[in-house]
């Protein structure tokens, strides 16, 4: 669980944790565009208290998704020892799509900050980019993926696939089909 900043008084720590709990619930129920005023109200706090802890929506999103990102980062480290580098990368990308699907709007938010190092969400996206780069480089060294593929492009494609799946809930296999199609286009062509 995302940790409150060090040095908070006990009441401020409780407020921080209540805000995160209610934000998770609101984002799961209404998507990442859920009303921040509603999040504060559900936590029994004022909007000013929310903004003291989280200066903007991206800061709140970052705190909410910190646990999931931590899990995805741990998974990427596990997959670095997989004997099939391309399969490891695909597995990790599928897990990203699954994670993004838990909160409507997450894929869009991550796409919007993919090249914004100053965004509070960069705290989530930058480590993900580094983890994915390691998996991608391994697949490229194995000769299974084209060398001109960048992790930035691949993560954008993955988030776009998650967004497409989110917009088409009546087709549960769409994300997997699109990811498979995308990765076929990224395969190294024997020369």
From TrEMBL:
Highest taxon above the source species: Bacteria
GO molecular function terms listed in the Swiss-Prot or TrEMBL record: DNA-binding transcription factor activity; transcription cis-regulatory region binding
DNA-binding region, residues: 35-54
Sequence ranges assigned to domain HTH tetR-type in this UniProt record: 13-72
InterPro entries for the chain: Homeodomain-like_sf (IPR009057), HTH-type_TetR-like_transc_reg (IPR050109), HTH_TetR (IPR001647), Tet_transcr_reg_TetR-rel_C_sf (IPR036271), TetR_SbtR-like_C (IPR049445)
Keywords assigned: DNA-binding, Transcription, Transcription regulation
Pfam families: TetR_C_43, TetR_N
Keyword hit for DNA-binding: yes
Classification via PANTHER family: HTH-TYPE TRANSCRIPTIONAL REGULATOR BETI (PTHR30055:SF234), HTH-TYPE TRANSCRIPTIONAL REGULATOR RUTR (PTHR30055)
UniProt name for this protein: TetR family transcriptional regulator
Organism (species): Streptomyces lacrimifluminis
